[in-house]
Amino acid sequence: MKNLREIEDYAKANKIPILLPESRSILEELILKYQPQNILEIGTAIGFSGCLMLLLSTNSKLTTIEKSDDAIIVAKRNFEKSNLIERVTILQGDATEIIKSLNSQFDFIFLDGPKAQYLYQLPFLLNLLTKNGIILADNVLFRDMVKGDAPLNRRYKKIVINLRKFIQEVESNAELNSKILSIGDGLMIITKK
Ligand SMILES: C[S@@+](CC[C@H](N)C(=O)[O-])C[C@H]1O[C@@H](n2cnc3c(N)ncnc32)[C@H](O)[C@@H]1O
Questions:
Q1: DSSP code per residue over 134-155
Q2: pLDDT at 174
Q3: Which of 20, 45, 135, 185 is the most exposed place for a label (fewest CB within 10 A)?
Q4: Block mean pLDDT (10 aa), the chain, length 193
Q5: Number of separate domains in the chain
Q6: How far apart are CA 166 and CA 139, in angstroms?
Q7: What is the spatial distance between Cα 28 and Cα 10, in angstroms, rounded to a whole number?
Q8: Helix (H) or strand (E) holding 72
Q9: Nearest 5°: phi and psi at 96?
């Protein structure tokens, strides 16, 4: 896991947001327990969570979507250095558009891209998810603003309102089981029945 430490250090030095340590342990637990075969990730950044998932599930493949060209250059280098590049497909562009044209089935989805888009991405992701497949959505409690009714900061209003709607959509869908963990910035584990 030396490479992971280096990626983490690079992220810190360059102020690139990656998985928080406390959220990382939940992702690790899920990947170790379910050993997914085909993983989809929304929000590659520099490949930290992607490398982590591939290292913990040795038979898996990863499709990961990122809109930033600069991040993809670094992510590609990190997948190469970790000898994982052959198991990865990196798609560049807006994830909300790209997922509409994917036609594989995934048994694990790590949702960690633009928070205001989770709501719009949900129906497409559910189509791509296998029965008993899992979605782990990060940041669903966004800075403690999602629960409660304190006045919303203008800058984050759309994110918070859309995350509330996302949670409602998930919780009212009879085909899904879900729970929210108040860990890190809030994680939602969603399973398709
Ligand atoms: C929190 S970071 C991902 C961190 C990464 N999963 C990790 O833990 O190592 C979110 C990423 O989503 C990307 N992103 C934002 N909007 C996007 C979009 N519409 N489509 C694809 N990627 C997007 C950002 O550029 C950023 O790299």
A1: EEEEE-TTGGGTSSS-PPPPGG
A2: 98
A3: 20
A4: 90 96 97 98 98 97 98 98 97 98 97 98 98 98 90 91 97 98 97 98
A5: 1
A6: 12
A7: 21
A8: helix 69-81
A9: -65, -30
Distance 140 CA to ligand 1 centre (A): 15
Q: Is ligand 1 within 6 A of the CB of residue 192?
A: no
Which CATH number do you get for residue 78? 3.40.50.150
Concatenate the DSSP letters of all residues of 91-131 into one string.
EES-HHHHGGG----EEEEEE-S-GGGHHHHHHHHHHHEEE
Q: Quote the crossing angle between the two packed helices 157-171 and 118-128, to the nearest 10°.
A: 30
* pLDDT value at residue 38: 98
Q: Are 140 and 168 in contact (CB under 8 A)?
A: no
Domain that holds residue 35: 2-192
The answer to whether the CB of 138 is under 6 A from ligand 1 is no
- Structure token digits, residue 99: 């997922």
114 in contact with ligand 1, CB cutoff 6 A = yes
